[in-house]
Amino acid sequence: MKNFTKLFVSIFYIGYIKIAPGTWGSLASLFLMYILFNILSLPLVILVIIFIILFFLSNYLINYFSSFTDSHDSKHIIIDELLGIFFIFLFYDFINIYNNFVTCLLIFVIFRLFDISKLFPASYFDKQLHNGYGVILDDIIAGLYTVLTIMIINAFI
Predict the structure, then answer these.
(1) Distance (Å, rounded) from C-alpha 147 to C-alpha 24?
(2) pLDDT tens digits, residue range 60-87?
(3) Please, are residues 20 and 78 in contact by the beta-carbon 8 Å criterion?
(4) Which of 9, 55, 93, 124 has the highest CB neighbour number within 10 Å of its CB?
């Protein structure tokens, strides 16, 4: 169970990359979500169900990982980046700008800025919830801020 948990929360050990694991995790997540949403073209309801299952499974496994590593929000945990990017892609049709490359570039850059800066209420969840939900929710809020920012950019283009 420990090996599966490490594999899952680090997205196939990408979280163990020494330099900027969150950035690498976001890049890998962007690639995976692009395939899931644009190439496989699953119905939105199926994608929402997958997101919900991943959300709760991630919380459980983050808590388990934290218990056996005696850590909170370890740098190796990057499944939260995947959930943040996944959340953004649920709104992909509303935020598509010019073409897929430009949209994905904007998603990556803006998400990383919001994820690193942890604007309120992301900072609140990150500091107050010392469990998997605290680890995950700050990235979902960064995803929400990313969606809103790109929608605003779209309104002025």
Answers:
(1) 20
(2) 999 999 888 878 778 899 999 999 999 9
(3) no
(4) 9
